[in-house]
Amino acid sequence: xxxxxxxxxxxxxxxxxAVAGVVIGRLYVVPAPPVENELxxxxxxxxxxxxxxxxxxxxxxxxxxxxxxxxxxxxxxDNAWLAQAIRSEHGYGPQVSAAVxxxxxxxxxxQKETLEHIFAMRxxxxxxxxxxxxxxxxxxxxxxxx
Length: 146
Description:
This protein is mainly α.
């Protein structure tokens, strides 16, 4: 009988420890959602869009998704080129420097495309909605990493 209580206590403590691990992991290990997710959540959940706004935003998001995928593929290719240059030169030589410059161009293009996407979404909003949207953009751009 005593062994059974001990076993039950062990199982209960193991369960509590597992739940605590999940909670701690979710609070401290899981990264914050990307800025674009927060903006899209704000758009679709908090701004009370009408059906015409929803339709326009869907089209804007579809175009951006295609362009973002292309730019992200370009970034991956640039990273592969950088890796090859590092493997070849074993230091910061002309090939590595050129690969870094090429990668920065792709990153800049992605950033510009993202900003154009944000402003395109903003153009769909009514003036009363743009205040919240602008606040969310500024907050996202100035928030410190945890």
